[in-house]
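Thread: quick sanity check before group meeting

JM: Hey all, I'm pulling together slides for Thursday and realized we never actually wrote out the predicted structure for the chain we discussed last week. Dropping the sequence here so it's in one place. If anyone has concerns about the input, flag it before I start.
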Amino acid sequence: MKSKSNFPQRRAMRLRDYDYSQPGAYFVTICARHRKCLFGAITDGKMRLNEIGQIVVECWNHIQQHFPSVELGESVIMPNHFHGIISWGITETRTPHPSENINTGRGEVSSSVDISPTTRRGEVPSPSLGKIMAYFKYQSTKHINRHYNTPGTRIWQRNYHDHIIRDDPDLQRLRQYMQNNPMKWELDQLHPDNPSRW
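JM (edit): ok, ran it. Output follows.
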């Protein structure tokens, strides 16, 4: 007879049977371990990054250097989590957005998403979303622990949440959500005082 585990069962976060290495655009959310507010604080509806938050943003912006086929869209860092848009192998138009300088320092956001593969013969295929997120979490954890001399300290929760961006209205909705996120921090389900499934 099989014994039941005393450990809580984690719900699978990925979409079953979906190939996360295929061309696409994704909205990702990564939460700090135990929802601790490690990255800064919200003041007057604006995110004020501390040194840890700045390291996280730098590591996010560095993703393109390690994965040249990847494009980074708008992102926002909150006191205990990070949202970002990431894509590869699709046709998209890039235009500046008024909220692009909230916390990312990037200056590029997608204004439309056409899920059309653009990979050409001889191009290096893109890695999976899981590999990209693992790289980001590993690099940011490494740099934070090196900066604070705290080897082995975990920064992130084990998993991440993703949403496959299907069309332009979906993209616009997510961009608006990120723009408004700091102003609605007190109501956020990831706020440490609020009940959450994370």
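AS: nice. DSSP finds four helices and eight strands in the chain. Residues 129-148 form the longest helix (20 residues).
JM: adding both to the slides.
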